[in-house]
């Protein structure tokens, strides 16, 4: 339960557990209600028979069984009854005894269905439910309007549940505290309690679990519990207060009057339990049959049978008023269990004038319902009769019980108000039949019997009558005890004998019926050894055995058995395994497949017998462990593989009888198929699919059972070539030489996807087949077929394992086609320029040839159609003699054009040569190749002589013409000579060459030339005229002279022309200079008349020669000229350094120059004072000079030059160095030597810069000035003009 429920009830009469509060008659007991799941109670003790709270004064608080709990359905809950300190709580346990629990304690009581328990309140009290913060409290308060001391309170009385066999509250044995003490009998036996006090109130109704052997008769007055003086006085005071509180309200009864009696329905016989003088009557009623009491007719509202209420029309209201006028019933013939009730029909009351009101006749006969109540006038009523009669006999009532009866009239759907209730009390009668006595203890000669009192039915039980058959078994009973006690000891009995007993109760009203007969037995002697135990069932770790009762022992003797066991090889001997009264036992925790010895002995209260004979039993073997994982043996084949496995490591104590192999296709392992079962440890799995994955596993079986499965082995079978395909089929209309085929994949792929297809074709006359397609596609085009023929096609597929078998043949016929290839044509030469070609007609392939096409050409790859027509020959004209020609023929019909025939070579006869087509003039370089070797020797002599000019060439372009031509076609006969025609001159005959030099011609003269070729067959035609002209004579060399020279350069001049000439001048010159080996190297080639030779060495002789050439050719070289360069002067000396020594002297130093080709170097120092001229101050080889006698306050300038002293020539002076200035000393500035030196150097640098500024430096300076001016102008334009 999610929330906690606390029930508070005001209870009267619980011994030592009531608390009195001033002036409000409140007794409180708290119930703590907590949830317990249904399954939590499954393993506990079976429920008790009732959940009543015992009280000597008042009705017991109880609740009917829950309506929602049937066969264990619904949640279970536990109600905790809180017993305060100084209070007591009495319950009945499972064995029938009573347990009294003193506070402080909490007693758990189980509610099987988890519903809120209904609280039965004492007479004159009402219950009220208050819910605060999820906790529900039930308060039992005194009834304020009216109170009936003679009956139970009519308020809060729920109808009995439909399942009366379930207990309302069951004491939970696992949660109950230990019992402080038990009520025992004071005299005569257990549970014997005197019952001298007659209770004023009838106990509450308790619904028992089932009708037991202790049940009494259906009619009887409940017994009364003994009450001490203190309790009686307290009760009298409470009764007095109740009467005072109600003001002597009606309906009260005297103290000693019999209590009101509840009535039981006919359909459900009651079950009454009598325990120690406190009884409870079970009343089972059907729900929906109880009607509620009303305060009077004025409070009654009309209600239909369907339970709906509302506004009624006038007729219905009149009928309802008629029904409500029923009279009070009259009770007569009151018996202990029955009564006769009669009543009068409802009548219309008379008006004031004595006449009856408007007649309101019921549409249907009236029916009447008689209801009774055993809980007071305002209690809940139960319907006992329903019919149209005006009287009814009410049966199945309880004796000595107060009842209230009322009647209610009904018509159609209307139900009138019930009549006034009339009370009556049933008569007392004899007690109910008691339960059979039970055996409390016994020996060989005595039996102690005990019994419980039955319901007294309104009159106290005075004595009990116990009868027995004296052990004779004849069915004739004699009285053995008569008295008020509830137990009796029977003595002087025979051992091991059966005695029958029965019991009856007696009160003032009579004797009850006897109980059922019970058979009891006395003990006997020591039993005999029983037979050996027999094996009933065996397990791996247990043995189930049974044995027989010793034949000599009577059935009434209580015999117990001891089973002893000895394990083979343990050495411990026989040990007890079982001790009890059962005739079978299961011995557990044994070892598998082990032999055990057993024997059994019997004993009773007199002693133990000898053990039986020893028997041996063996436990079953355990199931073996799983076999090892299977392995593959050998090679896996496409359709099978061989597997093997090892036996299990643990056989379970028994030999393995067989192995079972399971196989599963695929890797999912969803379905397994048994493929082998036998003793072998290997198996060949056959019938497999190629290229598939399989899983296999093994388990074994023995006497112990089946082992677990082994680990799974995965196997992949190899693929095989695919199966045969369906024959290919034709797609579209077949062509003459090509068909389109298509096919589908094979039905069996061999375990691997098809990757390739192969198509083979066989001809109509040959059985040999050839492959025409191989690839992955499902269609192909087959070409190269013959028109109008039938071909057979077959197909095969391939995967990674190879090609499969060929399919069946597919016959396909081609359509008509173009003609076949013609045979090679034949040629006949009629002349060197005319040939006749003829041919034959080829096979037409089903269509006649309509025309022929002849191709003719000089080359095999460039033939052109020269004839089209039906003829079989053609004449070719205009051919070249001695020429190879090619020809071929093809045939044409309506189906197409046939292939060309093979090309035929045809050669025309020989003829005179053809005319020369192209004539060329030879160049001068080609003319020189025709010079004789003598000229080469002269050249060598010229090189040796050095100065002798070369001779003129043998073939001069001025007097000779070189002619070359392309050889013409000889027309099959080799050309023997050529004839060169010069016009006026005699023709020149040349051999079979393509070049010729015509000599002895006039310079600068034009000639017309034509050439004719000749062979053995004659002279061919002349060529076209070719015009050539001889060149003028070449010029003579000019005179060469040197106009300027230096130690490194020579300037040469020749001719009379200007120094620089244009390149367009006709006359040009070539200047050459001789090297050390005597060879001449060209220095200049051009029209100029001067040339400057640079990078020469000093004092060295050089040789030169010159040649003039123009369009006529190159003239001869001049004689060799020799020119010599002079010696070079020394290099300029760097700026000298001047250091003042004192006012009148200084020292001038300069750097030394190295000697030049062995010639020594001397230096000349010049000095200039002021603006006078330089004068020589020193000449010699030293590099410093001490100048003295200087005048103060005067400027001096110094410069130095180097002089080369030649051995065989005058001295050569070099340029002077830059001047250096020595400034005079001033009085205001004192300069050290280093300052003077730096000043002198600065002056020298400035002088040097002034003198050495070149043209380039001046141009750069001007450029910088212009750039600065341009930047300034741009700046001015930017800031003053634009902005």
Automatic annotation (TrEMBL):
Pfam families: fn3
Similarity comment text for this entry: Belongs to the FNDC3 family.
Region called Disordered, residue ranges: 211-311, 344-364, 930-957
Domain (Fibronectin type-III): residue spans on this chain: 325-429, 433-526, 529-622, 623-720, 724-817, 818-911, 949-1033, 1034-1128, 1129-1227
Sequence ranges of Basic and acidic residues compositional bias: 225-246
Gene Ontology CC annotations of this record: Golgi membrane
Membrane-protein topology: Single-pass membrane protein
InterPro entries: E3_ligase_FN3/SPRY (IPR050617), FN3_dom (IPR003961), FN3_sf (IPR036116), Ig-like_fold (IPR013783)
Biased composition, class Acidic residues, residue ranges: 934-944
Locations listed in the record: Golgi apparatus membrane
UniProt cross-references to Gene3D superfamilies, sorted A to Z: Immunoglobulins
Transmembrane segments: 1259-1282
Protein name per UniProt: Fibronectin type-III domain-containing protein 3A
Keywords annotated in UniProt: Golgi apparatus, Membrane, Repeat, Transmembrane, Transmembrane helix
Principal cellular location given in the protein's record: Golgi
């Amino acid at each position: 339960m999610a929330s906690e429920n606390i029930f508070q009830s005001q209870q009267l009469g619980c011994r030592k557990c009531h608390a009195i509060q001033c002036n409000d008659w409140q007794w409180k007991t708290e119930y703590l209600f907590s949830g317990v799941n249904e399954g939590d109670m499954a393993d506990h003790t079976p429920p008790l028979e009732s959940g009543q709270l015992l009280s000597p004064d008042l009705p017991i608080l109880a609740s009917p069984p829950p309506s929602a709990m049937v066969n264990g359905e619904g949640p279970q809950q536990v109600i905790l009854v809180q017993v305060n300190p100084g209070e007591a709580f009495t319950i009945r346990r499972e064995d029938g005894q009573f347990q009294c629990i003193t506070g402080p304690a909490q007693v758990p009581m189980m509610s099987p269905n988890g519903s809120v328990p209904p609280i039965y309140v004492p007479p004159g009290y009402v219950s009220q439910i208050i819910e605060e913060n999820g906790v529900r409290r039930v308060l039992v308060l005194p009834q304020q309007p009216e109170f009936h001391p003679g009956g139970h309170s009519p308020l809060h009385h729920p109808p009995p549940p439909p399942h009366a066999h379930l207990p309302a509250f069951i004491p939970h044995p696992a949660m109950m505290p230990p019992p402080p003490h038990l009520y025992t009998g004071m005299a005569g036996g257990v549970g014997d309690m005197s019952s001298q006090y007659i209770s004023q109130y009838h106990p509450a109704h308790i619904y028992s679990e089932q009708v037991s052997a202790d049940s009494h008769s259906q009619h009887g007055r409940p017994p009364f519990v003994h009450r001490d003086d203190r309790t009686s006085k307290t009760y009298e005071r409470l009764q007095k207060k109740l009467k005072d509180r109600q003001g002597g309200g009606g309906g009260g009864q005297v103290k000693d009057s019999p209590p009101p009696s509840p009535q039981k329905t006919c359909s459900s016989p009651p079950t009454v339990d009598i325990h120690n003088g406190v009884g409870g009557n079970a009343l089972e009623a059907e729900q929906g049959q109880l009607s509620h009491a009303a305060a009077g007719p004025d409070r009654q509202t009309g209600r239909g049978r369907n339970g709906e209420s509302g506004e009624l029309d006038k007729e219905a209201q009149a009928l309802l008023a008629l029904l409500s006028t029923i009279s009070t019933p009259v009770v007569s013939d009151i018996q202990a269990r029955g009564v006769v009730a009669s009543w009068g029909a409802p009548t219309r009351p008379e008006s004031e004038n004595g006449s009856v009101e408007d007649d309101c006749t019921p549409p249907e006969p009236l029916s009447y319902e008689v209801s009774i109540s055993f809980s007071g006038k305002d209690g809940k009523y139960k319907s006992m009769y329903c019919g149209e009669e005006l009287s009814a006999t009410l049966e199945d009532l309880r004796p000595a019980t107060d009842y209230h009866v009322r009647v209610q009239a009904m018509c159609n759907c209307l139900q009138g108000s019930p009549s006034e209730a009339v009370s009556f009390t049933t008569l007392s009668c004899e007690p109910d039949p008691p339960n059979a006595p039970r055996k409390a203890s016994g020996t060989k000669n005595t039996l102690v019997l005990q019994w419980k009192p039955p319901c007294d039915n309104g009159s106290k039980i005075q004595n009990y009558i116990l009868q027995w058959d004296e052990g004779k078994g004849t069915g004739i009973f004699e009285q053995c005890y008569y008295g008020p006690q509830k137990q009796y000891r029977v003595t002087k009995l025979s051992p091991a004998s059966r005695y029958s007993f029965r019991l009856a109760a007696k009160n003032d009203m009579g004797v009850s019926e006897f109980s059922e007969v019970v058979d009891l037995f006395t003990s006997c002697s020591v039993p005999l050894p029983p037979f050996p135990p027999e094996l009933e069932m065996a397990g791996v770790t247990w043995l189930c055995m049974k044995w027989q009762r010793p034949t000599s022992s009577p059935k009434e003797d209580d015999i117990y058995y001891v089973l002893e066991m000895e394990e083979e090889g343990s050495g411990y001997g026989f040990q007890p395994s079982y001790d009890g009264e059962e005739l079978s036992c299961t011995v557990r925790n044994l070892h598998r497949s082990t032999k055990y010895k057993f024997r059994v002995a019997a004993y009773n209260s007199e002693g133990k017998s000898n053990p039986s004979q020893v028997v041996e039993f063996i436990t079953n073997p355990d199931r073996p462990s799983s076999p090892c994982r299977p392995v593959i043996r050998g090679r896996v084949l496409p359709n099978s593989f061989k597997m093997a496995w090892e036996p299990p490591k643990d056989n379970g104590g028994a030999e393995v009888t067989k192995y079972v192999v399971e196989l599963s296709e695929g890797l999912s392992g969803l379905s397994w198929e048994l493929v082998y079962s036998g003793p072998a440890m290997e198996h060949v799995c056959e019938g497999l699919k190629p290229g598939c994955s399989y899983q296999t596993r093994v388990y074994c079986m023995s006497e112990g059972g089946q082992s677990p499965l082994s680990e799974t082995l995965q196997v992949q079978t190899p693929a095989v070539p695919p199966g045969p395909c369906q024959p290919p089929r034709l797609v579209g209309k077949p062509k003459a030489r090509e068909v389109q085929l298509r096919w589908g994949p094979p039905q069996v792929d061999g375990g691997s996807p098809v990757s390739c297809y192969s198509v083979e074709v066989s001809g109509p006359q040959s059985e040999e087949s050839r492959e025409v397609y191989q690839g992955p596609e499902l269609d192909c085009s087959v070409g190269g077929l013959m028109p109008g023929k039938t071909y057979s096609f077959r197909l095969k597929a391939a995967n990674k394992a190879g090609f499969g078998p060929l399919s069946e043949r597919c016959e396909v016929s081609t359509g008509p086609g173009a003609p076949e290839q013609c045979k090679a044509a034949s040629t006949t030469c009629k002349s060197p320029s005319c040939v006749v070609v003829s041919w034959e007609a080829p096979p037409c392939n089903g269509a006649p040839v309509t025309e022929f096409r002849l191709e003719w050409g000089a080359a095999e790859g460039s033939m052109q159609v020269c004839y089209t027509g039906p003829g079989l020959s053609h004449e070719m004209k205009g051919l070249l003699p001695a020429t190879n020609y090619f020809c071929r023929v093809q045939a044409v019909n309506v189906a197409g054009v046939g292939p060309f025939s093979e090309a035929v070579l045809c050669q025309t006869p020989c003829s005179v040569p053809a005319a020369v087509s192209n004539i060329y003039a030879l160049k001068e370089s080609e003319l020189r190749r025709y010079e004789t070797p003598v000229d080469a020797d002269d050249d060598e002599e010229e090189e040796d002589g050095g100065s002798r000019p070369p001779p003129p060439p043998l073939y001069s372009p001025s007097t000779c013409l070189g002619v070359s031509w392309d050889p013409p076609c000889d027309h099959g006969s080799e050309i023997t000579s050529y004839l060169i025609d010069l016009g006026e001159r005699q023709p020149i005959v040349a051999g079979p060459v393509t070049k010729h030099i015509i000599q002895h011609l006039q310079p600068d003269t034009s000639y017309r030339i034509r050439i004719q070729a000749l062979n053995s067959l004659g002279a061919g035609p002349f060529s076209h005229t070719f015009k050539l002209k001889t060149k003028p004579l070449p010029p003579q060399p000019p005179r060469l002279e040197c106009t300027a020279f230096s130690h490194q350069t020579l300037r040469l001049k020749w001719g009379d022309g200007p120094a620089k000439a244009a390149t367009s001048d006709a006359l040009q010159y070539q200047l050459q200079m001789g090297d050390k080996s005597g060879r001449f190297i060209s220095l200049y080639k051009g029209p100029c008349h001067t040339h400057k030779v640079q990078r020469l060495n000093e004092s060295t002789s050089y040789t030169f020669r010159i040649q003039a050439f123009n369009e006529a050719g190159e003239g001869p070289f001049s004689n060799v000229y020799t020119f010599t360069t002079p010696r070079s002067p020394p290099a300029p000396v760097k700026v000298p350094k001047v250091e003042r020594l004192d006012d009148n002297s200084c020292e001038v130093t300069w750097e030394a120059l190295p000697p030049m080709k062995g010639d020594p170097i001397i230096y000349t120092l010049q000095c200039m004072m002021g603006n006078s001229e330089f004068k020589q101050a020193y000449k010699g080889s030293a590099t410093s000079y001490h100048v003295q006698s200087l005048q103060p306050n005067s400027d001096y300038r110094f410069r130095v030059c180097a002089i080369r002293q030649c051995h065989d020539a005058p001295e050569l002076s070099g340029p002077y160095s830059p001047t250096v200035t020595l400034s005079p000393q001033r009085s205001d500035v004192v300069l050290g030597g280093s300052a003077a030196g730096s000043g002198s150097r600065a002056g020298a640098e400035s002088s040097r810069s002034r003198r050495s500024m070149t043209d380039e430096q001046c141009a750069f300076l001007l450029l910088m000035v212009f750039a600065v001016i341009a930047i300034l102008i741009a700046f001015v334009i930017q800031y003053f003009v634009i902005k």
